[in-house]
């Protein structure tokens, strides 16, 4: 199966975002320890280096989150618009004679099997699973308290 370059760039962006986010989050957790260590040792040079790098990584992490949100939401909107255009083109090409040749369920299933439906079904099942899991965990928590 051949993947488009946009899809490859999207996957590459997600992997890079994940790697950088993990690295930066670990750095943002560890950096205050070094900042306070340099304060206790009265080493101002390393203190300023650690403080500026901490603030720089913090700002870059916020920028990276902003870019990921913009890119991800833009990517979804682009695909939703493309899907809506495909459905309208499909409905314009379908004539009544063609519609009668195939059953009504054929066209209905073609329209309903969209990305949005599968994604919404996934999140509905995920919420149902989380609800069941939370009930089980609360029951176990009350049992062991």
TrEMBL record:
An example Gene Ontology CC term for this record: plasma membrane
Record protein name field: Uncharacterized protein
SUPFAM superfamilies referenced in this protein's UniProt entry, alphabetically: ABC transporter transmembrane region (SSF90123)
Membrane-topology annotation of the record: Multi-pass membrane protein
UniProt key word DNA repair: no
Localization per Swiss-Prot or TrEMBL: Cell membrane
Annotated signal peptide: none
Domain of life: Bacteria
